[in-house]
């Protein structure tokens, strides 16, 4: 018997073209293969569009329900590596995610805005990640900050976080001080960073726990809200609501074996008072919250060079 190399499944898109002019929206699911709420939420909206319960009047919406088919089929986060890192085109693709990147990057460039639907491990409230303020810097120049923040605020989730690439640069610097292998800043570039590079904007929606049926409802509601917000459908745009906006501006790095999160039950978005112990070093010393703020991505399994948790403060940016 000959062993067959498993075939790479293709990417499937479903696109609705409104008959009037308007923006081009891309909705992604399963960039991480085990995050099935995206494909499930998209399937419901596609059914709505086909049945006429949602009528796309203007612009275009493209649904790409499963961005990483190999990982999705395996029900794993990654195929060969994290698709949401170092996303770009490569003339010599070396792995599954390189090959997807060669197709996904041009699809992203064909659109004006992106909603990337994810879910997470463990408990916690849904939240949305959005990008930097308008700037002409080197790291992530941008000029759609207001539109992107409004897009994030319309989704229906109460917690909005920004500051990803800046904190990633700090993570790289902290790792370097510890003599750990150097990470490239391009590693921090995923789908939304690629959209901003390409002249558009986009947000990452974290709908809730991977296996919680409510996560699908969060994703579904968010897509419906965005179609109305952008005027693609004629539904009334969701009423503006007050959101908690957090600037992720600090991290606690696992510096050596034995450094760990202090306490259990932390969830992204938990408010933490100044002085509260958040981590403990291997030598027993405590890392306390430097100011009133929020804990983000608490990781009880952090290995040296990874974040034990990230910290945020209430942001001055307006949603
Ligand atoms: Zn994800």
Strand content: 25-35%
Helix content: 25-40%
Low-confidence stretches: none
**Considering the protein shown, what is the CATH homologous superfamily of the largest domain?**
Zn peptidases
Distance between the termini: 60 Å
- Number of distinct beta strands: 14
Secondary structural class: alpha/beta
Quickly describe the structure.
With 319 residues, the protein is of the alpha/beta class.
Give the secondary structure arrangement, pairings included.
Layout: E1 14-17, E2 20-29, H1 37-51, E3 58-64, H2 69-74, H3 96-109, E4 113-120, E5 127-130, H4 145-153, E6 159-162, H5 164-177, H6 191-197, E7 201-209, H7 213-229, E8 244-253, E9 260-261, E10 270-272, E11 277-280, E12 286-288, E13 293-296, E14 307-314
Parallel strand pairs: 2-3, 2-4, 4-7, 5-6, 6-8
Antiparallel strand pairs: 1-3, 5-7, 8-14, 9-11, 10-13, 11-12, 13-14
Helix pairs in contact: 1-7
Zinc ion (ZN) binds near residues 32, 35 and 118.
How does this model look, in words?
It is a single chain. This protein has 7 helices and 14 strands. It has helices at residues 37-51, 69-74, 96-109, 145-153, 164-177, 191-197, 213-229, and strands at 14-17, 20-29, 58-64, 113-120, 127-130, 159-162, 201-209, 244-253, 260-261, 270-272, 277-280, 286-288, 293-296, 307-314. The longest helix is centred in the last third of the chain and has 17 residues, at 213-229. The relative contact order is 0.15. The model has no long low-confidence stretch (mean pLDDT 95). The chain binds zinc ion. Zinc ion binds at residues 32, 35, 118.
């Amino acid at each position: 018997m000959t062993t067959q190399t498993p075939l790479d499944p293709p990417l499937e898109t479903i696109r609705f073209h409104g008959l009037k002019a308007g923006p081009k929206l891309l909705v992604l699911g399963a960039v991480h293969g085990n995050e099935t709420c995206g494909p499930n939420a998209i399937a419901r909206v596609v059914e709505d569009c086909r049945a006429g319960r949602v009528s796309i009047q203007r612009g275009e919406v493209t649904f790409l329900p499963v961005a990483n088919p190999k990982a999705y089929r395996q029900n794993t986060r990654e195929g060969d590596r994290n698709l949401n890192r170092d996303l770009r085109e490569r003339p010599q693709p070396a792995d599954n995610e390189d090959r997807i990147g060669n197709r996904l990057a041009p699809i992203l460039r064909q659109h004006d805005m992106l909603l990337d639907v994810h879910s997470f491990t463990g408990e916690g409230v849904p939240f949305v990640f959005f990008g930097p303020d308008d700037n002409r810097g080197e790291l992530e120049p941008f000029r759609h900050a207001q539109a992107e923040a409004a897009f994030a605020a319309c989704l229906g989730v109460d917690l909005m976080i920004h500051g990803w690439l800046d904190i990633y640069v700090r993570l790289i610097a902290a790792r370097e001080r510890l003599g750990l292998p150097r990470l490239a800043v391009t590693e921090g570039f995923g789908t939304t960073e690629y959209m901003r590079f390409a002249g558009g904007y986009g947000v990452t929606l974290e709908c809730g726990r991977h296996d919680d049926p409510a996560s699908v409802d969060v994703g579904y509601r968010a897509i419906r809200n965005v179609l109305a917000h952008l005027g693609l459908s004629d539904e009334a745009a969701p009423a503006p609501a007050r959101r908690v906006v957090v600037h992720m501006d600090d991290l606690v790095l696992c510096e050596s074996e034995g450094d760990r999160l202090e306490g259990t039950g932390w969830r992204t978005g938990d408010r933490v008072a100044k002085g509260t112990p958040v981590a403990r070093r291997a030598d027993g010393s405590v890392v306390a919250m430097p100011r009133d703020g929020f804990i983000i991505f608490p990781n009880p399994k952090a290995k040296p060079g990874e974040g034990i948790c990230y910290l945020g403060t209430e942001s001055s940016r307006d949603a």
